[in-house]
Structures are given as structure tokens and as C-alpha cells.
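Exercise: predict the fold of this chain.
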Amino acid sequence: MDQEKRTFAELIAFLGDEVQTQHADVLLFTCCLASGLIDSTIYNAYNTFVSMQTGNTIFVGLGASNQNLRPYGWARSLTSIGCFAVGCFLFARLNHVVGARRRGCLMLSFLIQASTILITAGLIQVGVISTDLESQSQEKTQWIQEVPIILLSLQSSGQIVASRALGFNEIPTVVITSLLCDLMSDPKLFLLRNGKRDRRIVAFVLTLIGAIVGGWITKATGQIVPVLWLSAGIKMLIVIAWGFWQTGQ
């Protein structure tokens, strides 16, 4: 019994350690890659983004004049915006309650993200939810397709909350517009050494690479599930990485 108590106490202490933020940007870069993979793929499947909410806002606006790409397409975009906002609220509260830089909080956050992608991939894999790639007619509204948008929008919010918690505001992981603005507005843009500039460039390039790779995989396979499995794997690797991450200042 004493041994069990000691083991439990060690586990709690392990999960309660605050991780070092040095080099944590590497893990956020992989989130940028995942964002590119998922958004390009989900847009192909549902004409909606789950990370880039600026595009969804425009889709909702076009829906007001009945110029959206699909009937009720604006509803999907509005769902994504709402769920992303809710996700930011929930992940931020998790950080507040548990401790934003505690190992356990970061592992739990990314485990939730990975799990939601896995659930989405599973539902599509077994045929519970179809995609526009598979649909014979895109005129018929399939409200069940709201489910992957809900799940993936919720998980994508965890990335940007984590980037803020770790102090890497220059790597939002889900936004390109502000990233490019901050990059080109940087007064130290042309200095030889500029960590924030370098991180912004890497984040942009990896998001673009993710989008390209996601597009090619979808085109080659005619399915979106392979990209979702890959993205879930990336998130699970991040969970494992936090388990081995150094602690202290």
C-alpha cells in the first residue's frame, strides 16, 4: 500500500512539473503542419475550414446573400466558428485550472486533440459520415457532416491556446494572415539573427507544406481518412514528447 501511495505521489509530481519552453516551438511547428493537412483536406470534403476562421467568416457573409458554394454551406462555416470559439474557452479554462505549462495539462490538451481527430477518422472510415468526395450529389444537405466540423474545430483551438500559454504568440498555428503581417512589419526583419522572424517563416512554410501534402493525399486516394490518421499520429507524438520534455527553468 505504501508503495502504491508513493508511486501515485510520484506520478502526480511528474504530471505537475512545469515544462521548459525552450525548443517547445518545435512541437508547435508540427501543429502548423497538422493544420495545413487538416484544413486542406476538410475543405475538399466539406467546403469549410476548421482552423482558418477568417475564411469561414467570409463564407458566412456570402451565405447572407445566398452566394455560398453549397446550400446551407454558411451553416457549416458558422458551426466551425462557434465550436472554435467554444474550444478556445474550454482549453483556456483547462490551462487556468490545471496550470498552462504543467506537463499533465499539455499532455491532456494534446491527447484531447488527438482523440477528436481519431474519433472523426473512425466515424468516416466505417461509413457513418460521408464526405463530398464520396457524395453523388452535392445538392443534398447532409447535416451529419456537421459532426467532423464540430470535432475538428474544437481540437484546432487547443493548438493556438497552447501557443499562447507557452509564450510563442508568433506561432499561432491556425492563422496565416496576422503571421504574415507581423513577419513583414518586423523592424528586425533583415537582421542575421531574429528568432521570432525565423519561427514565423517556418510556421508559414510548414502550414503550406501540410496543405500541399493533404491535397495530394486526398487526390491520390480519393479519401480524407488517411490525412486524418496522419494528423492524429502527429498529435499523439506531441503527447509523447511532452512526457519526456525537460522541466524547470
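Check your answer against the key: The chain has a mean pLDDT of 92.
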